[in-house]
Design a protein that fits this description.
This protein has helices spanning 16-26, 28-43, 115-133, 150-160, 173-182, 196-199, 245-250, 258-264, 280-284, 305-318, 340-348; strands at residues 11-14, 55-58, 63-70, 74-82, 96-102, 108-113, 140-144, 165-169, 189-192, 205-208, 215-219, 229-232, 241-243, 252-255, 277-278, 297-300, 326-328. By secondary structure, the protein is α/β, with parallel strands linked by helices. The strands form three sheets. The protein has an eight-stranded parallel sheet with strand order 9-8-7-10-12-16-14-15. Strands 2-3-4-5-6-1-17 form a seven-stranded mixed sheet. A two-stranded parallel ribbon has the order 11-13. Helix 4 (150-160) links the parallel strand 7 and strand 8. The two termini are 35 Å apart. The relative contact order is 0.17.
C-alpha cells in the first residue's frame, strides 16, 4: 500500500555532505561496482524507458541542461551545467542536482545533489562499456585530462575491469600532480606523464576527459594503434570534441543514444551516415561488442538520462535504515487537498 498523502509531504534530501558520508560508508570501489551493475541492468531494460535528447540552453560560456526519463513506474530528471572556464574563477566546471519521483502520483521520492553522483555514474557507465569493448585482461589505462572526473574514472576501471596501472597526462601539470596524489594509496600503479604520447604507451584503455569547449585534437590518428579501447567522455556538447576524425574512420563506434550523440559527441564531426551502434544492443545480443584482438573500439559517451535514473534509484535504495539524508518539506500538504488557500490562511493565524 502506498504511503498516505500526509507521509509524502516530507521527502529525503541527500546533501553533498551526506553523499560523501554514504560513499565512505560503503567504500568507493564497492559502490562503483554496484552502480555499474545498476546502470547495466537499466540498459538491459532500454525499451521501457522514455528517451529524448536532453533539453539544452547553450551560451558562449557553456551549457545548462535538463535530462529527464521514466521507466513507467519512476521518473527522474537531472539539472546539470557545463562551463569549462569556471575553474579559472574558482568554480566547478560541472554541477548538478536531481530528483526521483513516482509516476502514479507525481510525488517526489528523493532530491539529491548530483555533482558527486554524476562523477560516480559517469565512471560506472565507462566501466560498463569497457566490460564489453575493452581488450580482454586490460591492465593499463591512460587518463588524458586529469580534472574532476579523473580519479573516479581510474577507480571505476580498477573496480570493474581490474586495471593495475593508470598513466596520467594533462596540459596543466598541477592537475596531473593532484590526480597522482589522490590516487597514491588506491592500489594502482600511478605514472605521471609529460605528454599524451607518453601516457598512451602500453595502454589498453585510453580515456579522454578534457574541459575546453573546442574542436580539440587530444588524440591524432597516428597515436592510436590496433587493439585499444577509447573511452571518449570529454566531447559532450556541440562544438566540443577530442579525437581526430580519422580515428573514428578506423574505429567501431558505440554510443548511448544516437540522436543525442550526433549533436554532442565525437561523431558530430562525421557525416550523417557514419555507422554507430547504440550500446544497449550489445547487451541485448543484437550487436557485437569487441570481436577481434586488433579492433579499435570507441565509446563516444556524452552522458544520458537513463544513467542518472539508475544512479538516483540506486542511492534511494541505499538510504533505507541510514541517516544519510534529511527530510525536507518541499510539498504543500493541506488537510483538505482542495483547500490550499485555507492552509495558507491558517499559517498566518
Amino acid at each position: 500500500m502506498p504511503p498516505a498523502p500526509s507521509q509524502l509531504a516530507y521527502i529525503p534530501f541527500v546533501s553533498v555532505e551526506n553523499m560523501m558520508r554514504l560513499v565512505h560508508s560503503f567504500g568507493i570501489e564497492k559502490l562503483l561496482l554496484e552502480l555499474t551493475d545498476a546502470v547495466e541492468a537499466d540498459y538491459r531494460r532500454w525499451d521501457l524507458f522514455e528517451k529524448t535528447p536532453r533539453l539544452a540552453s547553450h551560451s558562449q560560456e557553456g551549457v545548462i541542461e535538463l535530462m529527464p526519463t521514466s521507466d513507467g513506474e519512476a521518473f527522474s530528471f537531472k539539472y546539470v551545467n557545463g562551463h569549462p572556464s569556471n575553474t579559472a574563477k574558482g568554480y566547478q566546471t560541472v554541477t548538478a542536482f536531481g530528483l526521483l519521483a513516482r509516476v502514479d502520483t507525481g510525488y517526489p521520492l528523493m532530491l539529491s545533489e548530483m555533482t558527486l553522483l554524476t562523477a560516480l555514474r559517469t565512471a560506472a557507465t565507462s566501466a560498463m562499456a569497457a566490460r564489453y569493448l575493452a581488450p580482454k585482461d586490460s591492465k593499463v589505462m591512460a587518463m588524458i585530462g586529469n580534472g574532476a572526473q579523473a580519479e573516479f574514472q581510474a577507480l571505476g576501471m580498477k573496480a570493474v575491469i581490474g586495471i593495475e596501472e593508470v598513466r596520467l597526462y594533462d596540459v596543466d601539470p598541477k592537475a596531473t600532480e593532484k590526480a597522482a596524489k589522490n590516487l597514491r594509496d588506491s592500489g594502482l600503479r600511478v605514472v605521471a606523464c609529460s605528454t599524451s604520447q607518453e601516457a598512451i604507451q602500453g595502454a589498453h584503455i585510453i580515456t579522454t576527459c578534457t574541459a575546453d569547449k573546442a574542436y580539440a585534437t587530444i588524440l591524432t590518428d597516428n597515436m592510436v594503434g590496433p587493439g585499444v579501447h577509447i573511452n571518449a567522455i570529454g566531447g559532450d556538447c556541440p562544438g566540443k570534441t577530442e579525437l581526430h576524425k580519422d580515428i573514428l574512420s578506423r574505429a567501431d563506434t558505440f554510443v548511448e543514444f544516437e540522436p543525442q550523440t550526433r549533436i554532442e559527441g565525437e561523431i558530430q564531426q562525421m557525416d550523417a551516415d557514419y555507422p554507430v551502434t547504440e550500446f544497449w544492443r550489445v547487451l541485448s545480443g543484437d550487436a557485437e561488442g569487441r570481436n577481434d584482438a586488433r579492433q579499435i573500439t570507441l565509446f563516444d559517451s556524452v552522458g544520458f538520462a537513463i544513467e542518472d535514473f539508475s544512479a538516483l534509484r540506486y542511492i534511494h535504495a541505499k538510504l533505507k535504515g541510514t541517516d544519510f539524508f534529511q527530510q525536507i518539506d518541499i510539498l504543500a500538504d493541506p488537510d483538505d487537498p482542495r483547500d490550499l488557500y485555507g492552509m495558507l490562511q491558517r499559517a498566518a493565524a
